[in-house]
Design brief:
The complex is a heterodimer of chains A (116) and B (110). With 116 residues, chain A is mostly beta strands. Chain A has strands spanning 5-7, 10-13, 19-24, 31-38, 42-50, 53-56, 65-71, 74-79, 88-95, 106-107, 111-115. The chains are: A mainly beta (116), B mainly beta (110).
């Protein structure tokens, strides 16, 4: 398997524009996670899905952020409108399960977002 | 907030063993101890995990205290490629187990 695939690797946009980040999880993994990493706040969980259904979105910063998982092999994280404070590296991860904490998360290479 | 405490940074010499500590005094009986590391400009990657017994794999060893309130990640022979931020996480399932703290920034000197 190619691992978790994220696109684009880098995104530069202007304030107010819509940004869409994409993720393809590892085949057979039932859980998908979106994280954001900044120097100030470290790595933060934004939302996670189980079998394409959002389970916990308490980490999503505000209504400008939305995430979808239309099928088992694709997820998007959308920011509309984008703001400079959204500049960060966004990671997608997937795992087989969550129960018992035995499962390993596999992370993508991340998308570095710069909002000017 | 993370349920674990780690030193902000550690420094070691190449080809020497490295012991990275983690305190998790509030760990529950069903929480696993996971270690991930993040190399520069990459996503976090899994290193090792365990519940009660010490664990070994090709990357590292995990030593878990008898009371499970602390653990140590052991890199037996550090290389420059091991320079990374190492995260210790307690995970018993649920989003609270997906909290990454600040981790330990490991510096390897040649």
């Amino acid at each position: 398997d190619a691992g978790v695939i994220q696109s684009p690797r880098h995104e530069v946009t202007e304030m107010g524009q819509e940004v869409t980040l994409r993720c393809k999880p590892i085949s057979g993994h039932d859980y998908l996670f979106w994280y954001r990493q900044t120097m100030m706040r470290g790595l933060e969980l934004l939302i996670y899905f189980n079998n394409n259904v959002p389970i916990d979105d308490s980490g999503m910063p505000e209504d400008r952020f939305s995430a979808k998982m239309p099928n088992a092999s694709f997820s998007t994280l959308k920011i509309q409108p984008s703001e400079p404070r959204d500049s960060a590296v966004y990671f997608c991860a997937s795992s087989r399960g969550l129960a018992g904490g035995k499962d390993i998360q596999y992370f993508g290479a991340g998308t570095r977002l710069s909002v000017l | 907030d993370a349920k674990t405490t780690q030193p902000n940074s550690m420094e070691s010499n190449e080809e020497e063993p490295v012991h990275l500590p983690c305190n998790h005094s509030t760990i529950s009986g069903t929480d696993y101890i996971h270690w991930y590391r993040q190399l520069p400009s990459q996503g976090p990657e899994y290193v090792i995990h365990g519940l009660t017994s010490n664990v070994n794999n090709r990357m590292a060893s995990l030593a878990i205290a008898e009371d499970r309130k602390s653990s140590t990640l052991i890199l037996h022979r550090a290389t420059l490629r091991d320079a990374a931020v190492y995260y210790c996480i307690n995970s018993g399932g649920g989003a609270d187990g997906l909290t990454f703290g600040k981790g330990t920034h490991l510096i390897i000197q040649p």
